[in-house]
User: Fold these one by one.
Assistant:
Number 1:
Amino acid sequence: MPKVTIDGRELEVAPGTSIISAAHANGIDIPFYCWHPRLSIAANCRMCLVEIEKAPKLQPACEVQCRDGMVVHTKSKQVIEARAAVQEFLLVNHPIDCPICDQAGECKLQDYYMKHDRSGTRFDEVKVPKKKSVVLGPQVVLDEERCINCTRCVRFMEEVAHNPQLGQFDRGDRAVIGTFPGQPLNDPYSMNTVEICPVGALTSRDFRFKVRSWFLKSVESVCSGCARGCSINLDHYNNEAQRYRARDNAAVNQGWLCDDGRLSYKRIHDPETQITTPHQRSDDGRMVPITMEQAKLKLAELLGPYVGETDGSLGLTLSAQLTTEGVTAFVELAEQVLQVDTYSILGQADWEADKLLKVADQNPNRAGAELVLEAYSIFDEGPELLKKSLEKGAVKTLLMVGSEHPSHDEAWLKALSGVKVIAFASNWDPTSRQADLVLPLASFAEQDGTFVNFQARMQRVNKALKPIGARLPAVEAASLVASALGAKGWKIGNWITAFNELKKHTELLADVSPMKLGPFGVVLESKTLNEAPTQTGAGAGVGG
Amino acid sequence: MGGHGHGNEAKSAGSDLPEGVVRVSRNMDASDRLFVPAIAAGLGQTVKHFFTNIFGKEKYTQTVQYPDVKIEYPHRFRGMHRLVPREDGNPRCVACFMCQTACPARCIHIVAGETDDQRIEKFPVIFEIDELRCVVCGLCVEACPCDAIRMDTGFHPKPVYSREDADFGKADLLGILGREEAKAAGQRAKDKPPATAAGTGRVERAHGDHGAGGSAGGYDHSH
């Protein structure tokens, strides 16, 4: 193990570690633009120059590996001067249009200018004009003037997306990033280039000009786009999700997100279809809004017959979009209060998996829902068997938690029309429109809980938004049903009590504490919850 | 009475007064303590003013007969803000949100949009100021990097009948002239009718402001 001295601190690092990694791991700050821990080293921005004793010139800390006995200075006069010079050089042709630049507020040029330069401009010449707002593809816009040619985006497309759609053209101060003629940047991972761009050169067409970055608040969450459960920062403003940013979770997404997943924040608030108040089917078949009190009375009327001794004709469907705790709360409700004989996990239809991150299952928590049913030794009928039960008349009342269904096809809707349906749903879809009583259900971003991804990794979902309207988090929805039915001794009031209740039923969670899942989650040991799709891309993609 | 009691107590323990603090005794004679003579004197003054204002030659009246009469504001009064137009009549604003960020009253609401004009790129689709919230502090003017918002009109926001009317939009804020510009427009009007600036309606609006029954009668240039 080489021993290296950085700023007088002796550090022992693994062989092959770069100086910048060793320094960052030990809390020593070295500024950088072009270096990215998951990409190959370009060493072209020169911002990370450090002084190495016995080396004739300053060396880039990203490229030079630690060797035994190396003595590095990151705060010497020479280094500080070099950083200021590099910073000044990068700003020579920069348009400084921060007021209209989306990156402002989270821009390295701004941060490092304040930290390492702070000088006025000495540049008397005319700046090189380049093209502004060049549309590169369906998701990305390029501003050539702002680009510092760090080539992070070029390297990402080549090394991670394996789809080299970007290139660097021309030389010197006329060098630009661009696409090839007739080939737009339309890779399904193209928005990662926006995220790794250290300046405002690449901006997202979706997020462009929407919110200034300093208004955003951020919580750590999990992308609900598919069963991969990529770690994200959910940025929100005005109680609306504004964008997802990837969070580097080595075991899950390595700091990348697919564009579909990144844009799946739009499912949280869809003003066209979102359900925010309880609705009831009136006599003439229309859905009319009602108050929560009326909804409770209706709940008692529809579910009252299933308390205590019943004919066993109540079915319960649980969406694979619910948090694990939400599923647990409703299963507990079935154990404690209601007599449920048919269970089914429903979810959205599969989409096309790809070789990097996207898996076919669009539901972020199918594994979690299955885990709960397994813990309570409950048989999951799935959509097909459930449909048969409905058609046979074995199920006469159906309580749906989440109205997702793989197809919403006619046979299913026809089967539904024969029974009483109570649906907790976030959005209007053919299934929730079919219900007799609809109650608003909060999306994952509006509640706390956990998701279990297809690799059996349990991750924490943090509440980012206040539930809009009267939307209820799933655990509170279960409490509402319990109170509507006048259940005595109902104790599951929040997601932690639900989690602890589940913990009593399964050994998998024996060592897991809900508050100690950390930013990256934990793997629930000795469990293959779902058949893992073929997956080589995620690991291979980050080789560099 | 209670007050006096306190005073006496404080006096007895008065040695602990901080340096430089002097205790002043309030000498009230018998008539002061009764208050009745003071009340009578005050009423007398009121009655005197009442009759003088009705029958007297020199009146005591201080009331200004607003809106027929207006007090001239100090020269440095800034007044309500306005958006400064470009030559084509669109606002100079590039929707950078600096004013919204600086605003302590959170009264500015901007929605940004994208234009095809590469020299501008970003512009405000909506620019609203809630005049009921605005505290006229001028921080938005300080923050603006392109002199797109100014406070040089010298008059108040007009009174409104509903809260919605107090949300001044882009067209409202663009339609206002600064004090100097309005003056210039007014002087021009004396020579000949001004050519209306097509598309902006700015000059027209300014004249409406001066007239009693103008379309924006609430705006009053009291310079």
Number 2:
Amino acid sequence: MSTERADAGTGAALLRDTVVALSERAPAVVAAAAEQLRGIRLGLSFNDGTAASLTPRRGRLVVGAGRADAADVEVVFDDRAMNLLFDLQCRPVDQVLPGSLDVRGAPEQVLAVWRAFTLLSQRGSGLRFVQRLWEEYRRRSPGLWGAVPAGGGTADVPEATGWTALDYLNRRRPAPAAPGGAAPDWSPATAPRLLWDGRAAAPWWEELPLTDADLVETMRVCRDRVAGEMRRLIPDREPRRDLYDLMRAYPARQGKGLRPTLTVAACVAFGGRAQDAVRSAAALELFHNGFLVHDDIADESTHRRGLPTLQVAHGAGLAVNVGDGLNLLAVDALLSNLTTLGLARTLGLIRETLHMCRESVEGQAMELGWIRHGEVPADDTSYLTMSTKKTGWYTCISPCRIGAVCAGVTDPAVLDRFDEAFRLIGIAFQIQDDVLNLVGDEVLYGKEALGDLWEGKRTVMLIHLLRTVPDPEERALLRKIVLRPRHEQNDADVRVVLRSMHRHGCVDYAVALADDLAARGIAHFERDLDVVPENQGKAVLRQIAHYVTSRPL
Amino acid sequence: MTRAVVDERSLGPAGPFPAGVPGGLRGGPLERQWLHYAFLSRGGDLAVIANLSVLGADGADEPPHRRGIVLVHDEGGGWEASQFNASQQDVPWSSFRLPRPRGAERFTVAAVAGSPALDVRLRGTGRACTSQCAPFGDGEFLRWQSEPGVLGSGVVTAHGRAREVELTGYHERVRGRWSWPALGGWVFGFVNAAHDAPGCAVVDAEPAPPSASVVFTLVQPRSPGDAANGSLMLWRDGRLVRHFPRRCLEVAVEGGLDRDSVVLVPPLAELLDAPVCAMVPGRLVLSARMGRDHLLVDFTSRAAARIANPCERGLRPFSVHETLGPCRVRGVVSGRPVAFDTRGIVEFAGGADEY
């Protein structure tokens, strides 16, 4: 049951909700605004008496409650200024009434703040989820625009006035019925767009301008589409109970949809049709699920995506067989591209997939070998190599390359352009995943809390801990605990390791390392992939690149 | 008294409007005068559009070019259009050379083949407004005068069938000098609130104008970058009561009209090298706000005729899409609400990759 927060409807709440939503669903927008602010701390006051602070931190925007203690720039809004901010079109001097938007600070910082607001406004206001937040705010605080009629947000608002054109189009679907009740002869397939905003024109006949994708929605659509394809690929025949039903059940524990989205987006970025990449994305997911089943057996994991692992629920024997079966179906799915994509692309897909599998099993071998032989790498380099092989390839690099192959790109020089950017982003993603295992909410995270510590997984935090603990006795004790097999582990000792990690700054170190890797990955993305024209597919890839930096930790 | 000879380009567009030039247009083939007429029948099942143009003479001793086209759309038969050689009066209704007509006067335009044809008596019920001047390109410009609320009564022939109709519509006088590549394109349209006066009494007593009319324009020249211009105007009872300038205007589109609903005209246009046209927007929304006044126009495309105009400077035609559909107008102006649902005609011009 959802409960309304005490400050709902206030300016401060609107700011917080907007930044949180953008961070989750359009992180590239937040990263770009944070880049403009560059360490400037903002104190924001609203005429409803609420206040908030806004601080850029490593590509994120952090909203604090209440008045800022030492703000570099103070901004005071009234309702009119809030509305203006959302519909930002003109220079403030042209539109803002005296006193409605008061920005104080050093001139260059004030300009930076205005650039950041402009950027958030221009790119955020095109996103449906942001519009919903602001429409709700307008409804509560009519201000400049007048109250939205009761029933706003439904398909038909009978007497809507005072809207901006784009806002109105976004709220009014479908169009009012034509006289006589006949169905409209036009397709609403293209999103509403501005031809004229009071200052700049876009010809009505030109292609749609690019907009920032709603990443959550995009990932959901890709995930669901690929999940449907996977269900279709798994046979509906005996033996159901001990094989095919289990195969079907495991992928049903849906993840975020990162890989399907990368595959489809890369295909679209190179001019392909999204549909062309769905079968291959499904094959990747089948491989992935097969690996996960085997990985959970090897790691003795108890939970996966919030539910007991397959070997816990059905025994290791059946689980191994299900994993094998999923891998087999994945090969079958790849081969079935022959009839739709042709021989050259299918061979390219097989080649890419084999490479991915090889990297994954090599990475898995490195990690399992460390555990088998009681080793903990002395530095981060070994970890980075292992992580690249084990997860970097199948999580990020291969989905992109496979998507591009689906679009007909087979030139290795072009495909290699994904590697460094998504290698770094993939490692950053993995480190953040490991951090979440220590500090995240199990319900949200979906995996067993502290499971990595129970398994003695060689994470950046663990490697850093054993490298930096100065006291030899403490280090020996920690080493003894972490090298213990899972079934000999106990909760008290796991808590000892966790406390040591916090005490020695291991989590902060890992977060900083992930941020650094992500930043480098984003830089590579912009540089290496400049051959890809700006299009919707590339926009989604960019959002994913920034998604890593904006995950809540 | 003689007028000083000046380079018009140094002073910008010539005025005042409409300064008819004795002896015809002498500014070259890009000099243009257009008379535009667009009407909808009271029942909403018939649309009539006519455009009569005078194009500048090619040489000093040559006469200007006169052209005319008439289009009719009825719900049953769809579009029918003349070629560009439609028969027209020597002095059409509301000619540039005449003062604004008083009372009802005859207006005829017809395809050489006889259908479509328009033979009606027209009567203005409101005040025309010199809308705007749009300078662009290298000394080119476009200026026009809008007059909604024009009533008509007479005979319209479409698909070979003549019928008596009552019309409510719009008239425009356009003058300027422009070339198609430089002009780029435009979005223009009008709507009149439903006008119920039976027989519209165009001959007898002064008829009442529509209770409200809206005319809007967005001109999108290719250059310079800041040449785009637009406006939205509201008439009440025949009088212009609010002009929202471009800074107060927002224009947005959504979706696209089914290509099967877009018909290429005139019939000979199929012989031209007409490139694939852009998708006609399925829905057009304009919002305007100025002070406490605000107005919203929500137009939905239902059918369109793509007029392929020959270009004076190249082989490829320029496209004007005459689009019909229902329209909703809502707003508050001078503290009074504006609310009516009607049918409108919108032009989407440009957008066929001509150049």
